[in-house]
Amino acid sequence: MHQHIKITPLLRLFATVCSLTLAVSLAACGSSSSSSSESSSSSSASPTTTSTATGSASTAKLTGVTAKGTLGKKPTISFKTPLKATDGASAILQEGNGATIKKGDRVCYQGIALSAETGKQVQSTWEANTPQCDVVVNSASLGSTRYDLFAGQKINTTIAIASTDTSQTTSSSGSYIMALTFVSRSKAITRAEGTKVTDIPSNLPKVTLASNGKPSIDLNGYKPGKSLVVQTLIKGKGAKVKSTNTISANYTGWLASNAKQFDSSWDNGTASDFSLSEVVTGWKKGLAGQTVGSQVLLIVPPDEGYGSTAQSSIPANSTLIFVVDILAAY
Fold it and tell me: How far is residue 79 from each of residues 71, 76, 85, 187, 202, measured CA to CA in Å?
């Protein structure tokens, strides 16, 4: 999976800290800090809340963790250390005052990771203001427990989830408390939406879409050259993708030599989120500047793909064809 972009697995939580197994993906943070978790919000205005309420949806209840601060601002998270908590246990620390999160929404959140052993902050997205938007609220992607925890909450809610990295040599050094604050919501899309492009060169591979949106191709006698080909098939009406963005996308990839499919997020049943800084050059060049909601045909020559290095089912010196639906950028 994702062999064309060479990224860490999608299910990751503050990836520079640990590799966790929650059914919610929190991409690598844009800011790392070793400062104490007691650093308060930059705003002291009312209203403020302090709560030890536990979430009703989680199989295990996380107790002994509190949050204090202005709703929608970075909270101060407190607990007695060392905190022993069941992996995956959760709690609602602050109940929000914004719009209600509904099934099918894409939710953006700010996050803090704290050591359960020391209470020290080890990662945060707040300082660099890099909210993550990789959560789509449905039971298929989150699982029933996380879905029940997220759906129906309001924006500015802060939840806490305990997680243990089993790769650590000791459980204490690999135990964390993740405090997530929901900061925005939007209706998620699962396939490209926009205006179909009509002036597509006739010599390019022909793309056909299944009823669910999954693409298939007919090479149409196409003979790849040495240059990257970028052809928008559907022009979305969303925000323009920046080269520094993380995007969520559904995609399929084929070998240009024989149209053999080697990868598809459609077959995996869920979109993929990845940073454009981590993809092959052809993806970064081809997707930067496109708009959310667009569908893009990419024909990636070897020197902007994997070059002379074979990758699993991709032979060395392969030209690759992709059809990518851009679902979100953040």
Answer: 19, 10, 11, 35, 63
CA distance 62 to 218: 53
Smallest CA-to-CA distance from 85 within 40, 55, 108 is with 55
Residues 274-292: pLDDT tens digits?
999 999 999 999 999 999 9
State yes or no: pLDDT of 214 exceeds 60. Answer: yes
230-268 pLDDT, tens digit each: 999 999 999 999 999 999 999 999 999 999 999 999 998
Q: Which of 36-40, 142-146, 264-268, 293-297 has the highest mean pLDDT?
A: 293-297
Give, in degrees to the nearest 5, the angle at Cα 14 between 13 and 16: 125
Radius of gyration of the chain (CA): 21
Report the range of poorest mean pLDDT among 119-133, 136-150, 255-269: 136-150
Could you give the CA distance from residue 27 to residue 16 in angstroms, rounded to a whole number? 10
pLDDT at 141: 77
Peptide bond into 9 cis (omega under 30): no
What are the strands, taking DSSP E only, across the chain? 48-51, 66-70, 76-78, 90-94, 105-115, 121-124, 132-136, 158-164, 175-187, 194-196, 206-209, 215-218, 229-236, 246-255, 261-264, 272-275, 295-300, 320-329
Contact 67, 103 (CB under 8 A): no
pLDDT digits (tens, 9 = 90+) for 291-311: 999 999 999 999 999 999 999
Is the model more confident about 171 or about 149?
149
CB-based contact 287:240 (threshold 8 Å)? no
Dist. CA 37–CA 76, nearest whole Å: 6
Q: How far apart are alpha carbons 307 and 318 in whole angstroms?
A: 7
Long-range contacts (CB closer than 8 Å, 24 or more residues apart) made by 78-83: 78/37, 78/38, 78/119, 79/116, 79/119, 79/177, 81/116, 81/117, 81/118, 81/119, 82/116, 82/117, 82/118, 82/172, 83/116, 83/117, 83/119, 83/162, 83/175, 83/177
